[in-house]
Design a protein that fits this description.
Elements lengths: L14 H29 L8 H25 L3 H16 L14 H28 L14 H22 L1 E2 L2 H33 L5 H20 L8 H23 L9 E3 L2 E3 L4 H20 L7 H4 L5 H33 L10 H25 L1 E4 L3 E6 L14 H30 L3 E4 L4 E5 L2 H9 L3 E6 L27 H5 L2 H8 L7 E6 L24 E2 L14 H10 L10 E6 L8 H12 L8 H4 L8 E4 L15 H9 L3 E5 L21 E6 L14 E3 L2 E3 L4 E4 L3 E5 L3 E5 L2 H18 L7 H11 L28 H9 L4
Parallel strand pairs: 1-4, 9-11, 9-12, 10-11, 12-13, 13-14, 14-17
Antiparallel strand pairs: 2-3, 5-7, 5-8, 6-7, 15-16, 18-19
Length: 835
């Protein structure tokens, strides 16, 4: 029987024109796909803007731009070989329509999005089988004789070795999510790989092997490589995770993997049309065992990126940090790309050698020695990969958790709001703890019986526990449970976060920065001799560099007394650190010796955002600690001491749906803190200039004081979120005030100073001003309503340009509230107040 090969320059037609058209079409596909994903990546910086409608529209336009030219080429291109290629690509582009329904879900609901991929993949596989049936009907119906077998054991060993090397960076730098997340991602990767393998085998490799004449191995490798890489690129571009980076990673990996798969397929025996079996009206699809080896290779290639990196963590919110998970994902991608390219070149060399010397050989069973060798190599490679994972990786399950909010929240109506602030704080704490212990008892007992770990909270009567669909369903069936919301937990990093620092400590500013003089805080110190003495600030942020010259003297825990003064629910550090820099900056604006509004105040702190994304539980961890501090490692229910808590909380953060929060998640908490006499200063958010862009709690609540940002000229910052807040048919005015928030000079880790912008920088001016007010007149401490009246009455009228938003020109304004914060005028009013 003549030797069969699949490589030759096609007879007839202008080959140069064919090649140019293939390259142009491939370039167009790559351009459209990457443009779409980069837009999604940029949109991830403002997740609220990436609505299902936007995602659906963007996905539909991408499919349209790719599908139309492919359909035309698949129908009318004259050369049969290239029509096969274009038809395959067009089929994959058509199948993208199957995945569009995932776009209708909330962008942050990645578990539900993952589930919606499976019907689309099932439809694609059915379509492949139907096309395979049509193809087989036009071919000879009987099973033929196998053709050439070239070094099958060597090929297996090559595949095993590749999989082991390819897996190392993903296992070393990535981390698994929760059990359910990991299971879904594993199944998704396998499903895409099986669909891709069937697609290549059925619609590309077999038809092309019949159409091409056996002459040139080089031509075959080029054509199969281009065709396979683009088909896999199109398929992986269907992954419907909205934050851009993970689909980009998959497309990069798939595009280079197509060349490796094509080369390996050329090394494997080519049965061509003999791989078929007639079974009644249906055609049974058969792939030889080496074809399944390639399917397994595709599974490894596509599954590991999905399995080891959370798509929600690869957006720009985290990616702006050089130490964050995006860096490790890109490192893994780069090394994996090099491994694939290296093996593709090795396979190309083998194709070049065997393609010129191939002869027909008998099909013989492999010996036991060869099978033993292959099994040994497989076990060795698997062992080394697992060893690398457990030695250098982040073993265990991480990621999503559940936040269970109970129906019964503590009734604080019996607490006298006019009682002394110390009595109120203790009474609120006692009532909250008592109520939570009583109402959580049965649920906690059942969780203990099931062996489910959990953490209880009292400031909101809630419990955080591990994520599981069955557990969620069971919890929702419980009579005491009001709702169950996500509590996303970022997966661990391969290396500890380090505090960003300057190359050397910097000299502080000699004069008060312009933002301090803008609100006249310097006049309060100079003329009224008030600097915030006697007031304790609680900063819930990314952490603090406690020995920064701007902050060191004001830390209540100086001398190593960190109990009751520092909590790190993220990493459990025993003394204040700031791996992000944000918290050191905000605290420096509140009370820094050289940059602060109230340089005489003291501070304690809690780290809820060292990695720039939190969740409801982490935010409550910090609020509970700042309200009633407790020793590190102690139980906040029994060891909390409200008398040691902060009087003013600075909250330069918001909790969006990406972090699991719903609009009312902290509502009972802010009511309790307000009753306890704690002032909450909250940044309004940075989603401007859109109207009604104050969307995330706690800035949306009437019970807190929200602050927008102005520049040094007093003009509203473009990024500053505007009101009014609109929820469930009601609306109210926010922000309450505006304060300097553009190019604010303050302390950063490394004993340095830096300018930052945002409403995160505006809120600390309010916190510092409240410290000045309460320090000037201690009778006002804990009197939230009167303090708010003073702040509103003393605000300087806003004179700048107003946006075209509802109620923007009113007083209060939906853009600037009651005006620009004026610390000097506020303290003067406070001094005139008599309780």
């Amino acid at each position: 029987m003549p030797t069969r090969r699949i490589s030759n320059t096609p007879a007839g037609g202008d080959n140069c024109l064919n090649i140019i058209v293939v390259l142009l079409v491939q370039g167009w596909i790559v351009f459209v796909y990457y443009l779409h994903q980069w837009i999604m990546l940029l949109a991830s910086f403002e997740p609220e803007a990436l609505t299902p409608q936007v995602h659906l529209l963007a996905g539909g336009v991408k499919i349209l731009f790719v599908l139309v030219p492919l359909l035309l080429l698949a129908r009318f291109w004259p050369h049969p070989i290239f029509r096969i290629v274009f038809r395959t690509w067009a089929l994959v582009a058509c199948s993208l329509l199957f995945f569009l329904p995932a776009s209708l879900l909330n962008p942050t609901a990645h578990q539900a999005r993952t589930l919606l991929h499976f019907p689309g993949l099932a439809l694609l596989i059915i379509l492949i089988f139907l096309l395979d049936r049509k193809y087989r009907k036009s071919a000879a119906p009987e099973v033929g004789t196998p053709g050439i077998r070239r070094r099958p054991t060597s090929i297996r060993l090559l595949v095993f070795l590749f999989c082991g090397l390819y897996a190392l960076p993903w296992l070393a730098w990535g981390a698994l999510g929760s059990f359910f997340d990991s299971l879904l991602q594993l199944l998704l990767g396998f499903s895409f790989a099986i669909a891709g393998s069937l697609l290549l085998e059925t619609l590309l490799f077999r038809p092309l092997s019949e159409k091409m004449v056996a002459e040139s191995w080089g031509w075959s490798f080029l054509l199969l490589g281009f065709a396979s890489s683009t088909a896999l690129f199109l398929l992986t571009g269907a992954v419907g995770f909205p934050f851009g980076t993970l689909p980009i990673i998959l497309m990069v990996i798939a595009s280079i993997s197509g060349w490796l798969v094509a080369g390996l397929r050329m090394l494997i025996e080519h049965r061509g049309p003999v791989l078929r079996q007639q079974t009644g009206p249906w055609i049974k699809l058969e792939i030889d065992r080496f074809g399944w080896s390639l399917a397994a290779l595709c599974c490894i290639v596509l599954t590991l990126p999905l399995l080891m990196f959370d798509p929600d963590e690869l957006g720009l919110i985290l990616g702006l940090s050089s130490q964050e998970i995006l860096r490790y994902a890109l490192q893994s991608t780069a090394l994996a790309f090099l491994v694939i390219m290296l093996f593709a070149l090795l396979v190309l060399l083998l194709v070049a050698v065997t393609g010129k010397t191939a002869v027909e050989v008998e099909t013989k069973p492999e010996g036991a020695a060869k099978k033993f060798l292959a099994l040994t190599i497989l076990l060795l490679v698997t062992s080394l990969s697992l060893l690398g994972y457990f030695k250098f990786g982040q073993p265990g399950l991480h990621g999503e958790r559940l936040f269970i909010i109970l129906k019964s929240q503590a009734d604080l109506g019996s607490i006298d709001p006019h009682a002394a602030v110390g009595q109120r704080r203790q009474a609120v704490y006692d009532r909250l703890v008592e109520h939570s212990l009583a109402t959580q008892q049965q649920l906690r007992q059942r969780l203990d019986d099931f062996g489910v770990p959990y953490t209880s909270y009292y400031l909101v009567n809630a419990i955080e526990t591990t994520d599981s669909p069955l557990l969620r369903l069971w919890l929702l069936s419980r009579p005491e449970v009001d709702r169950v919301i996500p509590s996303p937990r970022l997966r661990p990093l391969p290396e500890p976060l380090l505090a960003p620092g300057a190359s050397a400590p910097q000299d502080p500013p000699q004069d008060p920065p312009v933002n301090i003089t803008q609100i006249h805080a310097d006049r309060v110190w100079r003329e009224l001799n008030v600097t915030g003495e006697g007031i304790l600030i609680g900063n819930a942020d990314s952490g603090v560099q406690a020995d920064h010259p701007n902050l060191a003297a004001n830390y209540r825990g100086n001398g190593g007394q960190n109990d009751y003064s520092w909590l790190d629910p993220w990493f459990g550090t025993v003394s204040p650190v700031d791996p992000n820099g944000h918290g050191t900056h905000t605290l420096g604006t509140i009370l820094g010796k050289y940059t602060g509004v109230a340089p005489g105040a003291q501070w304690i702190a809690c780290a809820n955002l060292p990695r720039n994304l939190g969740n409801p539980a982490l935010y409550l961890d910090c609020w509970q600690f700042l309200f009633a501090p407790y020793p590190q490692g102690a139980d906040p229910f029994t060891a909390g001491k409200p008398e040691l808590g902060a009087q003013v909380f600075n909250n330069s953060w918001g909790c969006p749906p990406l972090e699991g929060c719903d609009p009312d998640v902290f509502l009972s908490a802010v009511n309790s803190l307000r009753l306890a006499g704690i002032f909450l200063a909250v940044g309004a958010g940075n989603e401007g200039p859109a109207c009604s862009s104050i969307n995330d709690p706690p800035a949306t609540y009437r019970q807190v004081f929200s602050v927008g940002a102005v520049d040094e000229r007093g003009s509203l910052a473009d990024f500053s979120s505007r009101g009014p807040v609109i929820q469930e048919g009601s609306s109210w005015i926010k922000p309450d005030l505006v304060a300097p928030g553009v190019q604010i000079l303050s302390s950063v880790p490394g004993s340095a100073y830096k300018m930052n912008s945002g409403t995160s920088m505006a809120g600390p001016h309010l916190a510092g001003t409240v410290a000045l007010i309460w320090s000037a007149n201690p009778a006002l401490v804990g009197d939230i309503e009167q303090t708010e009246r003073i702040l509103r009455a003393s605000a300087h009228p806003y004179q700048g340009t107003l946006p075209d938003c509802p109620a923007a020109a009113d007083i209060p304004s939906s853009a600037t509230g009651y005006g620009i914060l004026d610390a000097y005028a506020a303290v003067l009013l406070a001094l005139d107040f008599e309780k």
